[in-house]
């Protein structure tokens, strides 16, 4: 059995994608089912690149929960740490490909999603302390008990390399931006890598300016700050310097999941010991490939596909 290289923690769900593009949800007649959820997609993306990954999350006691475990196995992600919440159903998410680049999402996660009920008893503490890469998310601290659980995980981890925070801000999961800034900000003091877009950076550190945001993250002890600037490329910053990797032009089919493809490639680059520019260039290509395809988990690229695009 291959030793686990990366454990991601957080959101899982079943994504329902319209098979008709450019129309609102009311005009969609058929949907295609896919595995989804940020932490889950990132684990899949890294597995596609040959990494041994697992996701710590929870599903409901329903057919969609069975589907999640089955799909993870098919994608090469160990489902060993997928728990079951007896009280709540596996979330589903609808999107409308209108506009394709930034599709609106409709989350069915009420009153609370199983992945936000993660408690201390659900955590493989030995894995958290020793796995080469631990990936946590901003959404994961939006409510209790997951908030306290993820905090304890970071405290036990002790900021060892690599401990990665995906800023992952979705306003519908939070009571307000101030709460999100406080909670996500606490996490910045306990991780070695932070990654997010301009909006997420502003929520985390109070500025949408990529350079200033990166400086504030580095000042908090983060070793590598990665700020995704969309059409302006990707900024990577360390104490030694900062660089901007230019964007890759693709025809966007669906913008969802591009950040998760980026994340899986980021994991691969970190575990490979690559320099920041090489990591960002590779991850940028992975994200571009996902944006040129429909669906999230199913769209994650292989190493050969990334190399071909580059």
UniProtKB/TrEMBL annotation:
The keyword Glycoprotein does not apply. Keywords: ATP-binding, Kinase, Nucleotide-binding, Transferase. It comes from Amycolatopsis coloradensis. InterPro entries: Myo_inos_IolC, Myo_inos_IolC-like_sf, PfkB_Carbo_kinase, PfkB_dom, Ribokinase-like. Residues 7-302 form the Carbohydrate kinase PfkB domain. Belongs to the carbohydrate kinase PfkB family. The keyword Nucleotidyltransferase does not apply. This is 5-dehydro-2-deoxygluconokinase. It comes from the Bacteria. CDD domains: KdgK.
């Amino acid at each position: 059995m291959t030793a686990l290289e990366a454990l991601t923690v957080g959101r899982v769900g079943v994504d329902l994608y319209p098979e008709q593009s450019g129309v609102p949800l009311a005009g969609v007649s058929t949907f295609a089912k896919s595995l989804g959820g940020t932490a889950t997609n990132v684990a899949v993306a890294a597995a596609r690149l040959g990494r041994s990954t697992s996701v710590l999350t929870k599903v409901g006691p329903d057919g969609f929960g069975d589907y999640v475990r089955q799909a993870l196995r098919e994608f090469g992600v160990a489902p060993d740490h997928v728990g079951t919440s007896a009280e709540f159903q596996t979330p589903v998410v609808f999107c409308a490909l209108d506009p394709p680049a930034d599709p609106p999402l409709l989350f069915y996660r009420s009153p609370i999603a199983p992945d936000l009920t993660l408690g201390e008893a659900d955590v493989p503490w030995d894995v958290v302390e020793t796995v080469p890469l631990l990936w946590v998310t901003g959404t994961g601290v939006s409510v209790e008990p997951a908030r306290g659980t993820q905090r304890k995980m970071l405290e036990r981890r002790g900021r060892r390399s690599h401990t990665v925070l995906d800023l992952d801000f979705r306003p519908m999961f939070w009571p307000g931006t101030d709460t999100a800034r406080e909670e996500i900000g606490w996490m910045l003091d306990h991780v070695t890598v932070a990654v997010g877009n301009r909006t997420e950076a502003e929520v985390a550190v109070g500025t949408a300016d990529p350079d200033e945001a990166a400086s504030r993250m580095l000042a908090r002890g983060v070793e590598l700050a990665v700020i995704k600037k969309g059409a302006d490329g990707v900024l990577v910053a360390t104490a030694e310097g900062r660089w901007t990797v230019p964007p890759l032009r693709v025809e966007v089919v669906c913008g969802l999941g591009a950040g998760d493809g980026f994340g899986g490639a980021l994991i691969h680059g970190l575990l490979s010991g690559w320099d920041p520019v090489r990591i960002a260039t590779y991850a940028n290509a992975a994200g571009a490939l996902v944006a040129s395809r429909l669906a999230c988990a199913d769209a994650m690229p292989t190493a050969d596909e990334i190399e071909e695009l580059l």
